[in-house]
């Protein structure tokens, strides 16, 4: 065997596992028949299986049967139909910003790629290089923005005492931010906490941000997946577009169409007028071209096929609502199971929070106890994926939480 110290890469140290993906690695190594993975941010059926939506299968079949389709490169900005329909989905079909041609939309590599392209554009063309992100937020956010050349700061978001929103802390931190700073906002179903502002709170956030000239950058990973209603889940974004101001929005179709591995997303930038939007688009092309040249065609074609056909769109909304409703039902069942066991503490946050994830309030010791003693896997901050639960596995989880709270408090 060759001596690795001769390698020009001998100095490279082993990187730590990604904290989220590392949960799945540990889960896969566990041989227990009762093991449960609640770390992965992907929808599962009641049987614990991945789901491909019927409407997605139908769209794919149509694409496969269309012999006129070829495998040529898309343009740098992606599939034109997909971009137009994605903007309509998030901003609303009758959005004045779309009617005035002041929105530029480019197809990107799911939500992560959309955030990265937006961040690179801002680092190059926006006067303020500080972005404020919520504390806590999705683990990938700080890395995406830092590597793109932005400086990351945090604003208060979650209050562990109430397991709800620290609204006053949020307002105070944004009020103290320098004029013009960028602010990352989760459009709905905040990850990892599942805690969202109310519409009234969103309106106060909007007023404060606009008065200070703060630039909103929305991450919309769960439109329709949180409440089951596509329009309700886009309300926060539409408030900021309705006032005529500028903003950015990153969209992902991983969750709401189950297209995780197709990497389908879009970045939209709402500008002051059509001329600015067209110049912004020209610069977005210069960001994308040396990064990945142009995006993949298949996933975007699935999305466009579904969004432009009224019958398929309606079928999608029904399947989407069924996924959202199953998650809401898992919340209720878990809450009821903890109540039935008389588990110490107030667990009402489980049914108050929204979307795929719940911030349980369990601490690191309790999480490791549940993994060690009950073979339940989740991120060390106590975040669980409600979509990974079923009526069959809830009693096991409730028993484990009850034991953790009792023994590992």
UniProtKB/TrEMBL annotation:
Pfam families: Aminotran_1_2. Belongs to the class-I pyridoxal-phosphate-dependent aminotransferase family. Homodimer. Keywords: Aminotransferase, Pyridoxal phosphate, Transferase. The gene is LOC104214381. Its EC number is 2.6.1.1. The keyword Transferase applies. This is Aspartate aminotransferase. The keyword Repressor does not apply. It catalyses: L-aspartate + 2-oxoglutarate = oxaloacetate + L-glutamate. It comes from Nicotiana sylvestris. One of its GO terms (biological process) is amino acid metabolic process. InterPro entries: Aminotransferase_I/II_large, Asp_trans, NHTrfase_class1_PyrdxlP-BS, PyrdxlP-dep_Trfase, PyrdxlP-dep_Trfase_major, PyrdxlP-dep_Trfase_small.
């Amino acid at each position: 065997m060759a001596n690795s110290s001769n390698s020009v890469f001998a100095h490279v140290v082993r990187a730590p596992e990604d904290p989220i993906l590392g949960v799945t690695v540990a889960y896969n190594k566990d041989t227990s028949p009762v093991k449960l993975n609640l770390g992965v941010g992907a929808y599962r059926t009641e049987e614990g299986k991945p789901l491909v939506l019927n409407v997605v299968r139908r769209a794919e079949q149509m694409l496969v049967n269309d012999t006129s389709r070829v495998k040529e490169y898309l343009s740098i900005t992606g599939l034109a139909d997909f971009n137009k329909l994605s903007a309509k989905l998030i901003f609303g079909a009758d959005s004045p910003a779309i009617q005035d041609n002041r929105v530029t939309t480019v197809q990107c590599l799911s939500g992560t790629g959309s955030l990265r392209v937006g961040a690179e554009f801002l680092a190059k063309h926006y006067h303020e290089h500080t972005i404020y992100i919520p504390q806590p937020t999705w683990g990938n956010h700080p890395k995406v923005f830092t590597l793109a050349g932005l400086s990351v700061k945090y604003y208060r978001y979650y209050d562990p005492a109430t397991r709800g929103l620290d609204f006053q802390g949020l307002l105070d931190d944004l009020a103290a931010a320098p004029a013009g700073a960028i602010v990352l906002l989760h459009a709905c179903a905040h990850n990892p906490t599942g805690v969202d502002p109310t519409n009234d709170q969103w309106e106060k956030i909007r007023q404060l941000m606009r008065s200070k000239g703060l630039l909103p950058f929305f991450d919309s990973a769960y439109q329709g997946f949180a409440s089951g209603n596509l329009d309700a889940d886009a309300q926060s974004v539409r408030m900021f577009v309705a006032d005529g101001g500028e903003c950015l929005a990153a969209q992902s179709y991983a969750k709401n169409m189950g297209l995780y591995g197709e990497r389908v997303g879009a970045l939209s930038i709402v500008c002051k007028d059509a001329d600015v939007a067209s110049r912004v688009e020209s610069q977005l092309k210069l960001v994308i071209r040396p990064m990945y040249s142009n995006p993949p065609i298949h996933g975007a074609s699935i999305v466009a096929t579904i969004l432009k056909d009224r019958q398929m769109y309606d079928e999608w909304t029904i399947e989407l609502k069924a996924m959202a409703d199953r998650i809401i039902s898992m919340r209720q069942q878990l809450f009821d199971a903890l109540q039935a066991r008389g588990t110490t503490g107030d667990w009402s946050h489980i049914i108050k929070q929204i979307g795929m994830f719940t911030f349980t309030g369990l601490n690191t010791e309790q999480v490791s106890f549940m993994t060690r003693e009950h073979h339940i896997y989740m991120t060390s901050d106590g975040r669980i994926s409600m979509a990974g639960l079923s009526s069959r596995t809830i009693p096991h989880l409730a028993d484990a939480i009850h034991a953790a709270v009792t023994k590992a408090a």
